Amino acid sequence: MNDHHHLGYRIRQILNQGLSLDAQTLDRLKAARGQALASQRVAVRNPVFAWTNNFADRSGSSSFVSRILLPAAVLIVGLFAINNWHQSQLVQEMVEIDAAMLTGDLPLDAYLDKGFDAWLKRSSH
Question: Is there a domain that residue 23 lies in?
Fold first, then answer.
């Protein structure tokens, strides 16, 4: 890599000194440079979904819609979905606890007795 850098530096120095070239050679150099640049071009990929580009093109403001509004809408919908799932999990846990209490052998008054909690702690040791 260092040899390529040194070679490029030397070529640049020679070219900076100036060369007297005829028009045909300059045209060929210009064409070769254009071909080299064309082969070096990298296709820029758009970081949004294809359907968002179609939507944005129809609405007229592609950068605002595809870069700000759409990700914000997806984030908000995702947060609502996570919150809904979490709430349903909490309700399911409460249902399981209530079912266990109602179908258990102990009366409900035992769960309300403050001494029952202390008795449970002592009996578990």
Answer: no
**Contact between 42 and 23 (Cβ < 8 Å):** no
What is the span of the domain harbouring residue 55?
Answer: 50-104
Count CB atoms within 10 A of the CB of residue 98.
10
Give a yes or no: residue 14 inside a domain.
no
- Going residue by residue through the chain (125 aa), what tens digit of pLDDT does each one get? 577 778 878 877 777 777 677 888 878 888 888 888 787 766 656 555 555 555 555 555 557 777 788 889 999 999 999 999 999 999 999 999 888 878 878 777 777 777 877 777 777 76
- Kindly state whether residue 66 falls inside one of the protein's structural domains: yes
Q: Which of 33, 31, 29, 65 is nearest to 46 (CA)?
A: 65
Nearest of 79, 75, 54, 78 to residue 66 by alpha carbon: 54
